[in-house]
Specification:
Layout lengths: L1 H10 L4 E2 L4 E5 L3 E6 L3 E6 L4 E5 L9 H15 L6 E6 L2 H13 L4 E6 L9 H4 L1 E7 L4 E8 L4 E6 L2
């Protein structure tokens, strides 16, 4: 069921594509692929979502400011309703920094996924890449995990 929903949303012409090293605010579904050590911060407002896709080693020069700016924009577009956050992670340090920023901005975290991907060589090849689809209107996050070496695929819903 989740796999079917993921594929339908991915193929929908209204779904926006979020490129690597970027962020987007949209009322339409958002698809982003290739999260390894990267982290996603997802902010749900009133029918819109802000989504980021940054790796730890290439984050903006001031990632706290970047997330805070995204919070302000989503909050403004959402007519100042209470925001909710979801964190998706690879790198644990990056993930915890993002959690800190949401907490400091009083954004409750309603879902999270962390696989602790790193480039240390300690089992990274078994984790695989993550793709995600965010649906702002229903506040859903669908995550696809492609495990490289063990050749399994998972579709999960994060909430």
């Amino acid at each position: 069921m989740i796999e079917k929903k993921f594929k339908e949303l991915k193929e929908d012409q209204n779904t926006k594509i979020l490129e690597f090293k970027n962020k987007i605010i949209s009322s339409d579904p958002v698809f982003s692929a290739g999260y390894c050590d990267c982290n996603a911060v997802i902010l749900f407002g009133n029918g819109v979502a802000g989504v980021s896709h940054y790796p730890f080693f290439m984050s903006p020069s001031n990632p706290d400011l970047c997330i805070s700016q995204m919070i302000k924009k989503v909050h403004m577009i959402s007519k100042e309703c209470k925001l909710e956050g979801v964190l998706i992670g690879g790198d644990e340090t990056h993930f915890e920094r993002n959690r800190y920023v949401l907490n400091m901005n009083n954004v409750p975290i309603i879902g999270a996924y962390l696989d602790k991907w790193s480039y240390s060589g300690d089992g990274d090849e078994k984790i695989g890449e993550k793709d995600l689809i965010v649906v702002p209107k229903t506040k859903e996050v669908f995550l696809y995990i492609n495990h490289f070496m063990i050749k399994t695929k998972e579709y999960i819903q994060v909430n």
